[in-house]
Write a structure and sequence with these properties.
This protein is of the alpha/beta class and 332 residues long. It folds into three domains: 58 residues; 66 residues, no CATH class; 164 residues, Ribonuclease H-like superfamily/Ribonuclease H (Nucleotidyltransferase, domain 5, 2-Layer Sandwich). The protein is 41% helix and 9% strand. It contains 14 helices and five strands. Helix 2 crosses helix 3 and helix 7 packs across helix 8. The protein starts with 6 loop residues before the first helix and ends in a 5-residue tail after the last helix.
Length: 332
């Protein structure tokens, strides 16, 4: 049986129609038969207004009698739990996973899918958008939107650069701890930045405040992070091709840390730290004046990220994993 069209799909249909896509092409993009897309548009479009996802969803709700039947409307303890965790900036996937794997005593036996949470946030017909729960999501978007292509970075030359393609398979497979990705997040027009490192397997994040994103200050920040953890936790670091990583050989020579570099224009090859950068932007927007932000606040951002449960960690937190490694409970 064909699954009903969702509100997210209706938003995408509206977006593609505005960009002059054909019905057949929209069907391919949605992986739906074009006849289903065509019927959806005909039902909810008139001579007086273009197709609208909001109007179409409200009509679908009325026909299906879905109004006020959402799980979070009926289960108030579950509602309070979900909203509290959204306000702690947990994603719907993490909330659903943590509830399933490690439920609090009062909610044992309760469950909800991440898609149900998203549907409640965006509320199918948006008649309860006064909750403004979308503000607690990492992107804070009022609508679920298709992703846009990112711009390429400028190619840089790095001395003694070792290609990511020579990196051992154990690093790529995340089969052992101690392998990191590094990047720099820049702000404003004063070359202010933070240096970010992500341990690939535990997803533990280290953030350092920089006065500028030059090579010397960047390497000093990384060395500061290296010296806070056990040496066995630093076996390799993967960089992109920015000049802030030009002094990477100091890590090889002084700390026996292998260094690797992504291919030009392929920062997705260290996608873990790229994803973390997006989360950091939530707390430190592009126009932030880093020189006026206390170091303590930078540490609080780091703690927030390291105390969020992760689906990939069986809904434990990166900090919990790192503590187990440091105590010897997990092999590094």
């Amino acid at each position: 049986m064909q699954q009903r069209i969702t509100y997210y799909e209706r938003q995408r249909i509206e977006f593609y129609l505005r960009h002059k896509q054909s019905v057949r092409n929209i069907g391919r993009l949605l992986r739906r038969d074009h006849s289903i897309v065509s019927r959806e548009i005909i039902r909810n479009k008139s001579d007086y207004f273009p197709y609208s996802a909001d109007i179409a969803q409200k009509a679908a709700n009325r026909k299906a009698k879905h109004t006020n039947t959402r799980k979070l409307d009926k289960d108030k303890p579950l509602y309070r739990y979900v909203v509290a965790k959204l306000k702690e900036e947990w994603s719907p996937k993490v909330i659903a996973g943590r509830l399933k794997k490690h439920p609090p005593r009062k909610l044992k036996g309760s469950y909800i899918s991440h898609e149900q949470i998203y549907e409640y946030i965006y509320n199918d017909g948006r008649d309860e958008c006064f909750n403004r729960l979308h503000h607690y999501l990492s992107n804070a978007q009022p609508h679920r939107q298709p992703r846009y292509q990112r711009k390429h970075k400028t190619k840089e030359t790095i001395p003694d650069r070792v290609s990511i393609h020579t990196r051992p398979e154990a690093i790529s497979q995340r089969s052992e701890y101690g392998h990191w990705e590094s990047d720099t997040v820049c702000f404003g027009r004063k070359r202010q930045a933070v240096s970010v490192q992500l341990e690939r397997k535990s997803r533990y994040v280290a953030i350092s405040k920089l006065d500028n994103h030059g090579a010397q200050e960047t390497i000093d920040a990384i060395i500061g992070q290296v010296e806070t953890l056990s040496p066995r936790m630093w076996q390799s670091i993967t960089f992109d091709n920015g000049t802030e990583g030009a002094k990477h050989t100091k890590l090889r020579d002084d700390y026996s840390i292998d260094t690797y570099h992504c291919d030009p224009y392929k920062s997705w090859q260290k996608g873990g730290v790229e994803n973390v950068n997006g989360l950091i932007r939530r707390y430190l927007p592009k126009r932030a004046e880093i020189d006026k932000i206390p170091v303590g606040y930078i540490y609080s951002v780091q703690d927030k990220l390291n105390n969020k449960p992760r689906a990939i960690l069986d809904y434990l937190t990166p900090k919990e994993i790192m503590e187990q490694i440091q105590s010897g409970a997990l092999n590094s």
